[in-house]
Specification:
This protein has six domains: 92 residues, mini-chromosome maintenance (MCM) complex, chain A, domain 1; 144 residues, Nucleic acid-binding proteins (OB fold (Dihydrolipoamide Acetyltransferase, E2P), Beta Barrel); 213 residues, Rossmann fold (3-Layer(aba) Sandwich), CATH 3.40.50.300; 46 residues; 90 residues, Helicase, Ruva Protein, domain 3 (Orthogonal Bundle), CATH 1.10.8; 66 residues, Winged helix-like DNA-binding domain superfamily/Winged helix DNA-binding domain (Arc Repressor Mutant, subunit A, Orthogonal Bundle). The chain contains 25 helices and 28 strands. A five-stranded mixed β-barrel has the order 3-7-8-10-9. A five-stranded parallel sheet has the order 14-17-20-13-21.
Length: 699
């Protein structure tokens, strides 16, 4: 009897200790809970405030008991009534140690854990029974049975009359709570190359439900629970684990995953003052690929990115730079893409041929995870939020899959309306795409939109489009051949030396041989540098840079008049600003200077000359890129249609030789007119009812 009293005294003492702790540290939250219960029924406790106390270890080792003790403490303090004690949620946040999902083991069962990652799937919020009121059909008495996660519990015999009668659920007397299932996946930046990210199911209840969406980066604190596997009614020895969620912290910080020590910070600051910094960064991007320095410079700017801006009217201006590499086969586009993903603090690589719209954006799936209900699953662009999504073979994608990219690129969100689920997911990522020309090799005399199997509306969303041509050049070819052979030779040397040591070959010799393909800035430091710049540097346009960008824009706009093509649109000046911000960020500067403006003008000008220069009119024509049809071509088509209408009247048909004669008289070349007539016939805008006769279709 005395021993029992002693145990009771200890338990009471623990509850008393918690009461004293809460009164000392959480007086205001306790008052708020007392006033607003049951609308607000969660008490949040910061784990770090418990730390000096001996209660901290108990939270991790026996969380279930601790939660009950705190509820007792709240009843003692008269914050809540005894009848409401089970309705109060005790939630712990800000724990010290995060456990990787792949390192969870059996000895952590029923312990308090913190896991971090990306939400892959979420189910709808649905009520779940926690206390079932069951009425016996024999005696009519009501029995209350507490329910846990999983199978519905009901007694075989009525506790009152002890008969084996049917028990009916009385829903009005039962207690329900909101419930939702989540699936969390390891963050891609924490994985070693080629590893499959592991997932874990999370059971969320009450006021935590409906707070998060697929693609959110979250830290989930909870108790590790197990559920026995049952196959065809037979209980197995294997158990599945899930996390009983205690609290969710949405991780909004951009690159917190990349930990930067004070020593790293000193290295980054000293590196930012290096006069040869940009040259070093360019040499650190895919060093095994020879040349392509203009592309590597643009990739460096894309890695650092511009500043996303939220305007007072609620509109969002993107800061991410989208870039497309179009080029001949074998020019190392895919290699650049793969390397960029390793440098970006958060990057995902996918190939267009094997990606569907659902895989890129988001999909609604019906599977066992949601107990047969529809669940939302995040795709590659959502998982690359705040990073870079590299999409290879973009020209091989199906048209309906490619259309999913329009909203993702400009609005940086993905709207889903599938299977009764309507949601908007964020995908604030820069897109780096690669595509091959339709006919295998790039033709400088054919409009880019005819050569790439991509709609003009999508092409116009890229800030930079680089055409990478493989043209024979004796000097360049010799340098590339030498670089590739040297790279392979040193690779062979390393392998042979590791298997069977070669006399005279030591680490210093190998380092010397590897010098041409060794990045000036190691990839780990580069990732930290990019993360640090994006986390701390927010440059502003100087007056000189603003004037330089404005004068370039107005100079190109000034090339246009009523009869000349439109050389540049407002989208290009936005691209100039974003690139200027990225250029200043590389130096960790808070000001965009005239030198930054000149650098980005040079890059954008080079891109426009490749993709938007109309050789016939001798000037830039952004329509050639945006619509795929240069203004000169549109003028011929309009003249041909007008002549056919004038000659044909109501029938809208005319003889081809007459059309040629009249349109040639307007100053257009005969070959061009014939080419445009063939195009109208090919695209179904006109037909040839009889030989030598052309008839317009539609308006």
């Amino acid at each position: 009897m005395a021993k029992q009293e002693q145990v009771q005294a200890e338990v009471t003492d623990v509850a008393g200790e918690w009461r004293r702790f809460l009164v000392r540290h959480y007086k205001h939250p306790l008052g708020e809970l007392q006033r607003e219960f049951p609308h607000s029924r969660s008490l949040y406790i910061n784990y770090r405030t418990i730390l000096p106390n001996n209660l901290a270890n108990a939270v991790l080792e026996s969380p279930g008991k601790v939660i009950e003790d705190i509820r007792d403490a709240l009843v003692q303090h008269k914050t809540i009534d005894e009848k409401d004690r089970d309705r109060v949620n005790i939630r712990f946040t800000n724990l010290l140690v995060k456990t990787p999902i792949r390192e969870i083991r059996a000895d952590q069962m029923n312990k308090f854990l913190t896991v971090e990652g990306i939400l892959r799937k979420t189910t709808e919020v649905r009520p779940r029974i926690v206390e079932a009121a069951l009425r016996c059909t024999a005696c009519g008495k009501i029995t209350t049975i507490s329910q846990s996660y999983g199978k519905f519990q009901e007694p075989e015999f009525c506790p009152s009359c002890e008969k084996k009668a049917r028990m009916d659920l009385v829903a009005s007397r039962s207690r329900f709570t909101d419930s939702q299932k989540l699936r969390i996946q390891e963050s891609p930046e924490g994985l070693r190359g080629g590893e499959q990210p592991q997932t874990m199911d999370v059971d969320v209840t009450d006021d935590l439900t409906g707070r998060v969406a697929p693609g959110d980066r979250v830290v989930i604190n909870g108790i590790l629970r197990t559920i026995q596997r049952v196959s065809a009614g037979v209980k197995g020895t294997l158990f599945d684990i899930y996390l009983e969620c205690n609290s969710i912290e949405i991780s909004e910080k951009e690159f917190e995953e990349v930990s930067i020590s004070e020593e790293d910070e000193k290295t980054i600051t000293s590196l930012s003052k290096d006069t040869q910094l940009l040259r070093k960064i360019i040499r650190s991007i895919a060093p095994t690929i020879y040349g392509n320095e203009d592309v590597k410079e643009a990739v460096a700017l894309q890695l650092f990115g511009g500043i996303p801006k939220e305007m007072p009217d609620g509109s969002h201006l993107r800061g991410d730079i989208h870039m497309l590499l179009v080029g001949d086969p074998g020019i190392a586009k895919s290699q650049i893409l793969r390397y960029v993903v390793t440098l970006s603090p958060r990057g995902i690589y996918t190939s267009g041929k094997s990606s569907t719209a659902a895989g890129l954006t988001a999909t609604a799936v019906k599977d066992e995870f949601g107990d047969g209900r529809w669940t939302l699953e995040a795709g590659a662009l959502v998982l690359a939020d705040m990073g870079i999504a590299a999409v290879d073979e973009m020209d091989k994608m199906r048209t309906e899959d490619r259309s999913a990219l329009h909203e993702a690129m400009e609005q940086q969100s993905i709207s889903v309306a599938k299977a009764g689920i309507t949601a908007t997911l964020r995908c604030r990522c820069a897109l780096l795409g690669a595509a091959n020309p339709k006919l295998g090799r790039f033709d400088a005399y054919t409009p880019i939109s005819e050569q790439i199997n991509m709609p003009a509306a999508l092409l116009s969303r890229f800030d930079l489009i680089f055409v990478m041509q493989d043209q024979p050049d004796p000097k360049l070819d010799e340098a590339i051949a030498e670089h590739i052979l040297k790279t392979h030779r040193v690779g062979e040397l390393i392998v042979q030396h590791s298997k069977k040591p070669i006399p005279g070959v030591d680490d210093e010799f190998i380092k010397q041989q590897l010098a041409p393909v060794t990045p000036d800035i190691p990839p780990t430091l580069m990732r930290k540098y990019v993360a640090f710049a994006k986390r701390t540097c927010y440059p502003i346009l100087s007056d000189e840079a603003k004037d330089a960008l404005e004068s370039y824009y107005l100079k190109l706009r000034g090339l246009a008049d009523a009869n000349k093509p439109v050389p540049i649109t407002a989208r290009q000046i936005e691209a100039l600003v974003r690139l200027g911000e990225a250029s200043a960020r590389i130096r960790l500067s808070n000001t965009i200077e005239a030198a930054d403006a000149e650098r980005v003008i040079h890059i954008v000008d080079a891109c426009l000359r490749q993709v938007a220069y109309d050789a016939e009119s001798g000037s830039f024509d952004i329509d050639k890129l945006v619509t795929g049809v240069p203004k000169s071509q549109r003028d011929i088509i309009r003249s041909i249609k007008e002549v056919i209408r004038d000659l044909g009247g109501e029938s809208r048909e005319a003889r081809v030789d007459q059309v040629l004669e009249i349109v040639t008289g307007q100053g257009f070349a005969k070959e061009k007119i014939e080419q445009m007539i063939k195009m109208l016939l090919r695209e179904g805008e006109a037909i040839e009812p009889r030989s030598g006769i052309i008839k317009l279709i539609g308006y």
